[in-house]
Specification:
The chain has 16 helices and eight strands. It is of the alpha/beta class and about 325 residues long. The chain has two domains: about 140 residues, Rossmann fold, CATH 3.40.50; about 170 residues, Rossmann fold. The longest helix is centred in the first third of the chain and has 15 residues.
Length: about 325
């Protein structure tokens, strides 16, 4: 890698990175994907990046925070960091602390996910201006992504039926919102997932919460005939819901939104997709662990089994977690 990167801690208005499309020296990247795929992209293991982050952060900070900080510091040390975009309203409080620390060695731009239309439009306009973009140009870039959004909708319809390669759709949804893959054919990634799909029999599972840090969780589920038919957060990151404007597109984005808005969307999807079991994943030391009670109540209301799993550092799924999954869902 020889390009400087603007990296971010959670999905931001990715249309802004079209600004660098013709700039051979700069591009954007999701720091989460850089971290979890660091072996192949950065030449260092995600586990080692987590350990490096523990030099700065206490144990009670999650591995995603430690890993993302370490990614930023590594890029800076190699003169590959253009800047950091910190989502501060719509992500955890620890992200604010991380942004302050990164500000010691890099430029930091902050983005706030307001839930009120006028405030969000103002934030989008300000964000665009910081990158010497007008709001109308940002809207044009949003419209240019319509083909990708349509392909993602078809992919959603395919894997919702229950497919053996549901993990390919997980990757397609996550890379759809990562500008690191703009230069590759994102449509091709989605197309391959669809073309390789084969019907699968098993229990239809919803996977709620953030993407897991384990390296083998999808294989663990496949071996137990648990078929994920609803990836809550990756679908949200892919940003392919029907919307009349770029402002509405990001208003419909549930990840940074209030719990009640997200709850209604999840409940609708669980019913529509005839989900037979729920896995709720939260990262160790994450504030979202507290959502367990709320999702358990929803599962009880819908009369479907529920299990909450957690993990700390990157690596294989623990025997304890596998046992809990088997006890709840098989």
């Amino acid at each position: 890698m020889n390009e400087k990167l603007w990296i971010f801690n959670t999905t931001v208005p990715l249309e802004i990175f079209k600004r660098f499309e013709n700039d051979a020296g700069v591009r954007g990247a999701d720091a989460n994907n850089l971290f979890i795929n660091a072996d192949s992209i950065l030449g260092i293991s995600p586990y080692q990046l987590t350990l490096n982050g523990e030099i700065t952060f206490p144990m009670a900070y999650c591995s995603w925070i430690k890993g993302i900080f370490s990614v930023a510091h590594l890029l800076h040390s190699n003169n590959l960091l253009a800047g950091f975009i910190a989502v501060e309203l719509g992500d955890c409080a620890n992200s604010k602390v991380m942004a302050y620390l990164i500000e010691n060695f890099s430029k930091v731009i902050r983005f706030l996910y307001f839930e009120e239309k006028k405030l969000l439009q103002r934030e989008l306009e300000k964000f665009a201006n910081l990158f010497q973009f007008s709001f109308s140009e940002l809207t044009e870039r949003w419209e240019e992504r319509n083909n990708l959004r349509q392909s993602l909708k078809k992919a959603q319809a395919t894997y919702t039926e229950g497919v053996a390669n549901f993990d390919d759709f997980f990757v397609a949804f996550l890379t759809a919102s990562d500008p690191l893959y703009f230069k590759d054919d994102q449509l091709k990634t989605v197309k391959i997932a669809v073309e390789n799909s084969l019907p699968a029999t098993g229990k239809r599972i919803a996977f709620l919460g953030v993407p897991p840090i384990q390296s083998d969780l999808w294989q663990v589920l496949k071996e137990r005939d648990l078929i994920v038919c609803y990836f809550e957060t990756p679908e949200e990151f892919a940003l392919f819901k029907e919307a009349d404007s770029i402002v509405e597109q990001y208003l419909l984005f549930t990840y940074p939104a209030s719990y009640q808005f997200r709850y209604q969307e999840v409940k609708k999807q669980l019913k529509t997709r005839e989900i037979e079991g729920i896995i709720f994943y939260s990262q160790d030391f994450c504030y979202r662990e507290g959502e367990k009670v709320l999702w358990q109540e929803l599962a009880d209301e819908l009369k479907i089994p529920f299990v909450h799993i957690q993990h700390d550092k990157p690596g294989p799924t623990s025997a304890q977690t596998i046992l809990r999954i088997e006890a709840a869902l098989t």
